[in-house]
Design a protein that fits this description.
The protein is mainly alpha-helical. Helix content is 47%, strand content 4%. The protein has four helices and two strands, in the order H-E-H-H-E-H. It has a two-stranded antiparallel ribbon with strand order 1-2. It holds the Pfam family TOP6A-Spo11_Toprim. GO terms for molecular function: DNA binding; DNA topoisomerase type II (double strand cut, ATP-hydrolyzing) activity.
Length: 101
C-alpha cells in the first residue's frame, strides 16, 4: 500500500460511524419514474470502489449492489414530489424510528 492509499485508508477508518439516512432500496416504490437518474460511469466507478472495500458494512454493500443492478440512483430531494412537507416528515420519521444504516 502506497502512502496515498494509507492516508485514504486512515480517513475512511475515521468515518466508520456514518449513518445512511436517505432513500434506500425499500423506499423507491413511493417515487415516480422521472425521479430515477441513470447512473453515469463515474457513479458506477465510485459504487464499485466502495463495494470492493473490505471494511464496508454488509447493509451498505446491499444498498450499493441494488443501485448498480438497477442502473439508477435517486436524490433525496425527489421526495418533494410527494408534497412540500414530505421530505422533512420522511427524515424525522427515519430518525425517530432509527430507520437508518
Amino acid at each position: 500500500m502506497n502512502l496515498a492509499q494509507q492516508q485514504l485508508h486512515i480517513r475512511l477508518l475515521k468515518t466508520c460511524n456514518i449513518k445512511w439516512l436517505g432513500l434506500r432500496k425499500d423506499d423507491l416504490q413511493i417515487l415516480p419514474q422521472p425521479a430515477f437518474i441513470k447512473l453515469k460511469p463515474r457513479d458506477l466507478q465510485i459504487a464499485r470502489s466502495l463495494m470492493s472495500s473490505k471494511t464496508l458494512q454488509e447493509t451498505y454493500r446491499a444498498e450499493l449492489t441494488a443501485m448498480v443492478e438497477k442502473g439508477h440512483r435517486v436524490e433525496i430531494e425527489a421526495l418533494y414530489f410527494r408534497g412540500f412537507n414530505f421530505l422533512s416528515q420522511y427524515i424525522a420519521t427515519k430518525i425517530v424510528k432509527s430507520d437508518y444504516i
